[in-house]
Write a structure and sequence with these properties.
The complex is a heterodimer of chains A (345) and B (287). By secondary structure, chain A is an all-alpha fold. Chain A is 74% helix and 1% strand. Chain A is built from 13 helices and 2 strands; from the N terminus they run H-H-E-E-H-H-H-H-H-H-H-H-H-H-H. Chain B is flat. Chain B has 287 residues and is mostly helical. The chains are: A mainly alpha (345), B mainly alpha (287).
Chain lengths: 345, 287
């Protein structure tokens, strides 16, 4: 209360005031105190209400996103129903829309990206926590984090102008030639070398999510108690054995959670993919063939879509994407939460 | 004899383990090199293509028709306006929501839900954010506008600020709050003059990271702010932005438009880089 005293309760005479001089029963002071308390009480309630309102707004935005997607996709849902997600045809001129092409593209590019980025990302994290000379640890760590800071549109135009032509010349052509007589692989990696396509999109996605996976893995690996590793080294384990049998099992949940967050990102990424995937709704048997993903289809076609049904089908696609990413994200968050709880105990 | 053969088996096992370990070291070194090679590859291309696009007219002229001299002035102005607006609107909302989570309802049921939903929003694909704003603003207004673009960016800013604000406030020692409350300060006073002050550097870092995040966002602008080939500061009309111009120009067949797209990409990347460096410096000062 003595903080408040200085402002509103002291009698206005000058000079030193002893605490004993303040009469706590003086009616004017009591009234002033009551007023201050009421004022700060009201201010307090108002402040709390604003904070609560902001928190509720977060919930409202989320509800709004889902609501807007559902309302927007209603016309397409009425026209195509649930068979929308298993139909491959996509013909704006005939007003027939099916999501199978984009859904397949989204899933394949994301799985490809994870297949590359997960081992490499974990490898980078292991390198940085265990093997890297101390002097290089910080610069290499920052460099990998820089990859995360590159805007996705730069990945897109770099992929289109620089990487795709290089990839076409130096990887696709030799690979297609080399595998021409191998059954299965000659379909999977066959066809004309376009440069752009599903595989290129997956590869660029993997570079994008690499820093996320390595950052999360690094965090959980650094949380492994040193005693555990030292005990293992003490028994004569090699670095590989310490990592594979002690550190990685200990941090498994965290790595899986982080990987799922990265997967969520890969599923929804639009710009890095749109430029290089080729925008073909047809599902091809070759990974080198052009395809499309949900977000690429929306980004490419939304501003050109003229009919209500076309727009609504694109929003329906968005709803499908949100359902997929939502499931992945909830899984990731629950895993990471359970980890936090365990760490707290 | 027996001792000798176990010795042989042991040394074979030892060799195998040494080999496996060597392979492991080489592979993880390879992983780090893999990451660094891509980074160099991308940044080298950006420098090479981007710096050749840099010129004074990049900042003074608006986006041209193909074959004409031009720059990105209208896109720069649009991007700055929309990003600034998004930060001005989004920061207080995120700040207060984060404060609610850290100061008022740390363990409550509502806080749990809000925290969870916020994390979902944080990872929501930005193209979905664009569809959301399209549906509730663009359809309602009947046309694309800078305002819609700004709101889409706001929706991206809020969860970032909520998350960092909460994390930073949780780092403030409880002793500070207790000391202030013991002096008779009401809770809002404690929050405003003690905990916010103590967590200031961290919260500012969060806002900077949010700006870095939205300055490269393209997908949510494509069908909210659309684009505009002329200099316009009217927020209720379609507005140009760097990412949208890059998107349009990169996918066009004209070489001079491609150059401008690289110039724009360089500007965005440098901005994001500068923001992350400042954020990192602030963070280091705090700890």
């Amino acid at each position: 209360m003595f903080v408040a005293c200085a402002r509103c309760e002291l009698p206005p005479h000058a000079g030193t005031v002893l605490l004993t001089d303040i009469s706590l029963s003086d009616p004017s002071i009591l009234a002033a105190r009551a007023a201050t308390a009421a004022r700060s009480g009201a201010g307090d309630a108002r402040f709390r209400a604003i904070a609560l309102g902001a928190a509720l707004l977060v919930l409202l935005i989320f509800a709004g996103v889902i609501g807007a997607l559902i309302v927007g996709s209603m016309p397409a849902f009425k026209a195509f129903g649930l068979s929308f997600v298993v139909t491959e045809a996509w013909s704006p001129s005939r007003e027939i829309f099916g999501a199978l092409g984009p859904i397949t593209g989204t899933l394949i590019t994301s799985v490809l990206a994870m297949a590359i980025a997960l081992p490499v990302g974990v490898g980078i994290a292991v390198f940085l926590t265990e093997l890297c000379p101390r002097l290089l640890r910080r610069p290499i760590g920052i460099a990998i984090e820089l990859l995360a800071g590159i805007p996705s549109i730069l990945y897109g135009i770099w992929g289109l102008f620089i990487f795709a032509p290089w990839f076409q010349q130096h990887v696709q052509m030799p690979v297609i030639d080399a595998l021409a007589d191998v059954p299965v692989l000659n379909t999977l990696f066959g066809g004309a070398p376009y440069g752009i396509g599903i595989f290129t999109a997956g590869l660029i996605l993997s570079i994008m999510i690499l820093p996320f996976i390595s950052a999360v893995t690094r965090d959980v690996l650094e949380a492994v108690p040193g005693v555990l590793k030292e005990a293992s080294y003490g028994l004569g384990s090699t670095q590989w054995e310490v990592m594979w049998k002690v550190a990685l099992p200990f941090s498994r949940v965290g790595i899986v959670g982080g990987a799922m967050l990265a997967l969520g990102r890969a599923l929804g990424e639009s710009m890095a993919v749109t430029f290089v995937i080729g925008n073909a709704h047809h599902i091809a048997s070759s990974l080198f063939a052009p395809g499309t993903s949900i977000s690429a289809a929306i980004a490419n076609e939304f501003s050109e879509a003229t009919s209500t049904l076309y727009i609504s089908s694109l929003i329906y696609l968005g709803l499908v994407l949100y359902v997929i990413t939502f499931v992945v994200l909830v899984g990731a968050l629950l895993l990471l939460r359970s980890l936090e709880k365990k760490a707290g105990k | 004899m027996i001792a000798n053969s176990t010795g042989l088996a042991n040394s074979a096992l030892y060799l195998r383990r040494r080999l496996a370990n060597g392979l492991f070291v080489v592979l993880s070194l390879g992983a780090a090199v893999f990451g660094l090679v891509w980074l160099t590859f991308i940044l080298y291309a950006l420098m090479k293509e981007g710096f050749s696009a840099l010129s004074p007219t990049l900042f003074t002229l608006s986006t041209p028709p193909p074959g004409m001299p031009g720059g990105l002035a209208n896109a720069i102005v649009g991007s700055v306006m929309m990003s600034l607006g998004a930060v001005i609107v989004g920061t207080p909302i995120g700040l207060f929501a984060g404060t609610y989570l850290a100061e008022y309802a740390r363990h409550g049921r509502l806080a749990f839900v809000v925290r969870f939903v916020n994390d979902i929003l944080l990872s929501t694909p930005s193209i979905i954010t664009g569809l959301f704003i399209y549906q509730i603003v663009v359809v309602r207004m009947g046309h694309f506008s800078g305002l819609a673009g700004m709101l889409a960016l706001t929706v991206i800013v809020i969860p970032v600020v909520v998350r960092t604000t909460e994390n930073m406030l949780l780092l403030v020692p409880n002793g500070l709050r207790e000391a202030a409350s013991a002096l008779g300060a009401p809770q809002n006073f404690v929050i405003k003059s003690v905990t916010w002050k103590a967590a200031r550097a961290g919260i500012i870092t969060g806002v900077l990271l949010a700006v870095a995040r939205i300055s490269g966002e393209t997908a949510p602008l494509l069908f909210t702010a659309l684009n505009n080939n002329f200099m316009s500061t009217r927020i209720l009309e379609p507005m140009a932005s760097l990412p949208a111009v890059i998107f349009q120009y990169a996918l066009s067949p004209y070489a001079d438009w491609h150059t401008l797209a690289w110039g724009g990409a360089l500007l965005i990347t440098l901005t994001v880089l500068a923001l992350s460096i400042v954020a990192r410096l602030l963070e280091n000062k705090r700890t």
